[in-house]
Design a protein that fits this description.
Distance between the termini: 36 Å
Oligomer: single chain
Number of strands: 15
Radius of gyration: 21 Å
Shape: globular
Strand content: 25-35%
């Protein structure tokens, strides 16, 4: 007889260890999953180290059948999101579960009840934990994820929808192959269009300056919050979050790929492609029981010696609102693409892009990209008593 599922808050060190290590159980044998470094996962879950927890409150939960863990979830309130968007909702994240509807229901119901009991109107997710981190449930494109993008088994979609959650927003990732862009003549056409736009709108472009990265990162931080200000679900980063993001991405940063745009000499936008370090992590496969220094030595080998990265992801891109009708977005994307090609990379991921961001989608399609992955936000309304 199968034991009933029980859900309890993660409080003891033993429970946290089980919670922490559970993804390696879910994805055992899955060739597409890419585990993060253990130190990065610890920092993500550490409420003192992860800057997002400065303005969030929440609890970790695990589902058990007897003494076997069968799933995990976090229920939380993002107070900055609610203030910025004038919403009154809670969230769920770190959602991992075996192919077990009873366990999924128990986890999602526990998270929903945690949110409902605090007086909130709905629960949305998955998000671990903000739109600056890994968000959305993968519903199409079940291939290896690129850096800082989530991955999950196909069965998650059915489990979540069976639990009463409905789609609220899709985010798409766009793919471009280097050879396709060059051999089709697309790259040459884009160059001509870019030159015309730059002349007409007085746009200038420069790459990041390796000798002045501190000032460039300061400009990036100012541009990032201004450019993303009105995006669905976006909440401006705090100074601590921005510093953490710069520090984290700085580990993989290639200054030759990043570019800033100026209109009449004024900072207008940026594009920040990042080499896809997930190609390295997939080969290293960090896991509990393996000392991190061993994983780091292996990563260094695949990164610097074997040079295993031929993918780039462009996770950070934006143009200030007052410059969006001048073609700055198209110019930046062209320069980002040119840097990727000149850098010897063969595969480009541009994502995620909200399905309602029609202008950027048109620009990306004009560059020959195609949607190859879709992640989805889900929501369930809550009845308050």
């Amino acid at each position: 007889m199968t034991s009933a599922v029980s859900v309890r808050k993660v409080e003891s060190a033993t429970d946290f260890k089980a919670f922490f290590e559970f993804p390696w159980t879910v994805y055992k044998g899955d060739p597409n999953w890419v585990p993060t470094l253990l130190s990065m996962r610890r920092e993500l879950l550490d409420k003192k180290k992860n800057a997002a927890w400065d303005y969030m409150e929440g609890d970790y939960f695990a589902a058990w059948r007897g003494d076997q863990i069968v799933g995990t979830i976090t229920a939380f309130i993002n107070h900055r999101h609610n203030q910025f968007h004038d919403e009154h909702i809670g969230w769920f994240g770190t959602f991992e579960v075996l192919n077990d509807q009873e366990a999924a229901d128990a986890l999602l119901n526990a998270a929903a009840e945690w949110v409902r009991s605090r007086g909130y109107d709905a629960i949305r997710g998955p998000a671990t934990f903000t739109t600056h981190e890994e968000v959305g449930l993968l519903v199409d494109g079940f291939t290896r994820p690129v850096l800082l993008m989530p991955y999950n088994p196909r069965y998650y979609q059915q489990l979540v929808e069976n639990a009463g959650f409905v789609k609220v927003m899709d985010m798409n990732s766009f793919y471009l192959n280097r050879d396709q862009a060059v051999e089709s003549g697309l790259f040459a056409r884009l160059e001509r269009m870019t030159n015309a736009l730059m002349k007409r709108s007085k746009i200038t472009i420069r790459p990041a300056d390796p000798k002045n990265l501190r000032s460039d990162f300061a400009m990036f931080k100012e541009l990032y919050n201004a450019a993303w200000d009105k995006n669905w679900g976006f909440v401006p980063m705090t100074e601590r979050e921005l510093d953490s993001t710069v520090e984290s991405l700085g580990q993989f940063f290639d200054p030759k790929l990043a570019h800033f745009a100026f209109v009449d000499g004024n900072p207008a936008g940026f594009v920040l492609p990042i080499p896809d370090f997930n190609q390295v992590l997939q080969k290293v496969y960090p896991r509990p029981g393996v000392p991190e220094f061993v994983s780091l030595l292996q990563a260094l080998y695949y990164w610097k010696i074997k040079k295993s990265m031929d993918w780039v992801r462009t996770p950070l891109f934006g143009v200030k609102e007052e410059y969006r009708n001048k073609g700055v977005d198209a110019v930046l994307l062209y320069y980002g693409l040119r840097a990727i090609i000149d850098g010897g990379y063969f595969h480009s991921d541009s994502g995620w892009i909200l399905e309602i961001n029609e202008k950027i989608i048109r620009v990306l399609r004009s560059m020959g990209t195609e949607i190859y992955k879709t992640h989805r936000f889900y929501e369930r309304k809550l009845t308050l008593e």
